[in-house]
User: What shape does this take?
Amino acid sequence: MSPFFFFARILIADGRRLGHDGIRKTEEIIKPGMVVELEKEPDNEWDREAIKIKMPGLGQIGYAANSVHTVVGESHSAGRLYDKIGDTACGKVLYNMGAAVVCELVPNDGQAE
Assistant: This one.
């Protein structure tokens, strides 16, 4: 399988985008090499292709970016990712960009191929 990169927006618990202090905290918590869990959210009333991003022990930390206008570089939007995964999948963090991370889709055991 060729690498498939996706972009995840990180949110705070009440759904607002992270401010400056929150960005510093995500850079301390989410490190390259960490594995995140992806879970489709088909009942999301705003986005039928929503994909939650979760971390073990923390729960939901954000969503896969859902628009070609909100992704970075060669990463893909949730719409492109949605049909490539089952109900759940795993991603490996490549870069932490503060309010967002770039991840590579990996097998469900969290190991890159």
User: Anything to note?
Assistant: The chain has one domain: 5-106. Helices lie at 20-29, 78-82.
